[in-house]
Amino acid sequence: NNSYRGVGASGAVSAIIFAYILINPMNFMGVLFIPVWLPAFLFGTIFLLISVSLDKKQSKGINHSAHITGGLYGIAFMVTVFIAFANINLVSEFADKVKIDSIYDLIRIGY
User: Fold this and answer.
1) What b/e string do you get for 36-65 counting C-beta neighbours within 10 Å, with b at 16 or more?
2) Euclidean distance between CA atoms 19 and 90, whole angstroms
3) CA 91 to chain centre
4) What is the pTM assigned to this prediction?
5) Which residue(s) pair with 39 in the sheet?
6) Where are the domains of the chain?
7) Under a CB-based contact definition with an 8 Å cutoff, are residues 75 and 19 in contact?
8) CA-to-CA distance for 18 and 70, rounded, in angstroms?
9) DSSP conformational letter for 109
10) Which terminus in the chain has less CB density within 10 A, N or C?
11) Do the strands 28-30 and 36-39 form a parallel or antiparallel pair, or are they unpaired?
């Protein structure tokens, strides 16, 4: 669509958030004014699933594909940088950090 113009930095913000999630998957994240906190890897997964769903519905006014591609770019960028400059396999580091002992480790309620 030649008449479409995307405005904003949400794709770049999404890239930064997903880069953070890749490095700190067990830190808790939440949404302002909703007192439920999830591990970053779970928050990111839910965020991507919601963005894909809303992108398929083609909801008006929000470029959900920018959120999706921004997040994927953030992950790809961090993996590439860590391999190239630090010789660290960030994907295996991520997998090592994501350890869940109990279902209660997956949610925190309150501020």
Assistant:
1) ebbbbbbbbeebbeebeeebeeeeeeebbe
2) 10
3) 14
4) 0.85
5) 28
6) 10-109
7) yes
8) 8
9) E
10) N
11) antiparallel
